[in-house]
Amino acid sequence: MTLMVAVLGAMLFAAGVVILAATAAGVLVSTPSKPSSTGLWTQAVDKVRSLSRRTRVLVLAGAFGGVAVAVWTQWPLMLVVVPLAAIGIPHLLSAPPQTQIELLQALDRWVRSLTATMSTGKSITDALRLSARTAPPMLADHLVLLVRRLDDRWSTPDALLALADDLGSPDADAVLAALVLAAERGGNGASATLAALADTIQDRLKALREIEAERSKPRVVVKQVTIVTLVLLGGSMLLARDFFAPYGTPMGQVILGVLLACYVGSLIMLRRMTLPRERDRILRGTS
Fold first, then answer.
1. Would you state the pLDDT for residue 143?
2. pLDDT of 91-107, one tens digit each?
């Protein structure tokens, strides 16, 4: 009787997840509701809609996998563990976004473009306006906003400081601080300063790439160990199921939950170690 209740609850849980995902994907089209009818279900659907397609697939696969594993092993804990593992483990073992490297690459292109423009005799303000036309994609919107501020009669140093606040990066601060000083001095020596900054950015890019290559090595090893562990545990449960029988007891479920929590905690610590450390900025807000 207890097993039947657990299976029924698992099926209802899976059905709820499937209906929610199908509604978010547009498979189930409902009639327009009143604007005032907002609740937890609507908020949940909106949140699911914002998820990527890959995440939705992982959620569905984890839900069905959790039900299947829980019914097969008769371990209620699997209803929670399998869906969380399907979503969390790929995230914890994936490489973090390389925003620093991408921003440095964009800054390098932008600085070299400014250097080439200013070497023709253009002022800093004119060079900034021209650079917005061929800006790297990562800086395009920010430079368009910079030009609008200049059109609104902002001074060049103030517009550059506002750009520094928009980017919020110590690497960008170094470039923009040099441009602010050059603008205040009438552009004297700006080309040489920008050329030196471009070389510095290249050196930092090289260092960051080497650091990321070293950080990726333990991540690859842990990924391989995790895959091997999951395969061995799955095979062992198929061939020697009686060996894991103690985990089916209430105390065994608690012990299993603690062991899994410790393993997940180690993965979280590893990911934090591979994330770049935040550095203090040298320019602060103008407002």
1. 92
2. 888 877 778 888 888 98
For residue 8, what are its two tokens?
């029924």
Residue 31 has pLDDT above 50, yes or no: no
Supply 5's token pair. Answer: 């209740």
> In whole angstroms, what separates CA 249 from the centre of its chain?
39
Q: What percent of the chain has pLDDT over 70?
A: 79
Cβ distance 166 to 145 under 8 Å? yes
pLDDT value of residue 40: 58
DSSP of 200-259: HHHHHHHHHHHHHHHHHHHHHHHHHHHHHHHHHHHHHHHH-GGGGGGGGSHHHHHHHHHH
Can you tell me which residue has the tokens 């140093």? 157
Pick from 28-37, 43-52, 150-159: least confident: 28-37
pTM of the model: 0.65
